[in-house]
Design brief:
The chain is mostly helical. The chain has a domain at 35-42 and 78-150: Four Helix Bundle (Hemerythrin (Met), subunit A). The chain contains six helices and no strands. The protein has helices spanning 2-12, 32-50, 60-95, 100-103, 107-123, 127-150. The N and C termini lie far apart (53 Å). 18% of the residues are buried.
């Protein structure tokens, strides 16, 4: 009965179609999340590289502690890589518009390379790769800040 009432109301007062610039039309964009994710990935790489290998003849407990720490660090690095890529994609596809290409002719290439670097960091344990990612994200942060400043 309730569904029939709702259908009737929908016919009488149909919902208005609305258009938004992003999935949630809040208009709030930022670069901090992707930068923090990259920093966290870097910390996990540092911790993994510093993690002491217990040795092949180690007892069970040190091995379990080692494996537990390593797995947790890998999972966190993986999760932060996904956050970084997600935040990059949101900024790229929802915030930046065709008019920004005039300001930043290399916008698409810059974002594409940054997304590739985020994947590279998920696949590897490399401080060099982390530095490359951070550098790419700082460029995007600069583009974002310049785009925001141009609105004022």
């Amino acid at each position: 009965m309730f569904q029939k009432l709702l259908k009737l109301l929908d016919k009488i007062y149909p919902a208005e179609i609305v258009y938004a610039h992003c999935d949630v039309p809040c208009g709030i964009y930022e670069t901090g999340s992707m930068l923090t994710a990259a920093e966290t990935m870097g910390k996990m790489v540092e911790k993994m590289l510093a993690l002491e290998y217990p040795g092949d003849d180690a007892e069970k407990e040190p091995w379990l502690a080692y494996k537990n720490s390593l797995v947790r660090m890998i999972l966190e690095k993986e999760e932060q890589g996904e956050i970084c890529k997600k935040e990059l994609l949101i900024l790229w596809t929802d915030y930046f518009k065709p008019e920004h290409l005039k300001m930043f002719p290399n916008l698409h290439e810059t974002f594409w390379q940054a997304a590739k670097l985020a994947s590279k960091n998920k696949q590897n344990v490399s401080l060099e790769a982390v530095l490359e990612l951070k550098s790419a994200l700082r460029k995007i942060d600069g583009m974002f800040k310049a785009a925001e400043a141009s609105k004022k």
